[in-house]
Amino acid sequence: SKSSEEIKQQNSELSEQVHSLVSKNSAMKLDIEDLHKKLEMAELMIQQFSNQSQSLDASQQLQMALEEKASLETQVAQLSESLKQLQVERDQYVEKLKEEQRIWQQRVQRLSEQMHTMAGEKEAHMAQIRELEANIAEM
Questions:
Q1: Angle at the Cα of 33 (from 32 to 34), degrees rounded to 5?
Q2: Do the domain assignments include residue 34?
Q3: 28 with 79: CB under 8 angstroms?
Q4: Where are the transmembrane segments (predicted)?
């Protein structure tokens, strides 16, 4: 019973961790989408500046937009890598949960079989006790 409770607790904790990773995964996907949108905006700005005259101010703005684009691309790459890592961790937790569930199902099955066997033995012992009591009463 204690082991069962401990396993249930572990399963709960692992489930919470999986849910947490799924939440982080979703948040990172949203961040990536936002960064992609910013990247598209930066690319549009670059195109607009490229089409305009090459004044010093426009050139500075173009340089800033290029730097922002590079920064956003770096962030997208980092978030994509983090997302992949979270997905791997999530998959590992799911597999661990499945394995523990299988183990506990086997244990529960064995305990159930043992209880059934012990109930049969108890009934046999009770019958033997009644028979012995009857023999004693006859004597």
A1: 90
A2: yes
A3: yes
A4: none
- pLDDT confidence bin for 100, thresholds 50/70/90: confident
What tokens appear for 106 in the block?
């086997």
* Percent helix, percent strand, percent coil in the chain, to nearest 5: 95, 0, 5
Q: How many CB atoms lie within 10 A of CB 63?
A: 12
CA distance 103 to 93: 15
Torsion of CA 11, 12, 18, 21, to 10 degrees: -140
Question: What's the whole-number mean pLDDT along residues 61-90?
Answer: 89
Over 80: is that where the pLDDT of 136 sits? yes
Return the number of other C-beta atoms located less than 10 Å from residue 122's C-beta: 10
Query: Cβ of 20: how many Cβ atoms within 10 Å?
Result: 13
Instruction: Work out how many domains the chain is built from and give that number.
Output: 1
Quick check: is 59 in a domain? no
Is residue 110 included in any domain, yes or no? yes
Query: 24 vs 16, 19, 38, 114, CA distance in Å?
Result: 12, 9, 21, 44
88 within domain boundaries = yes
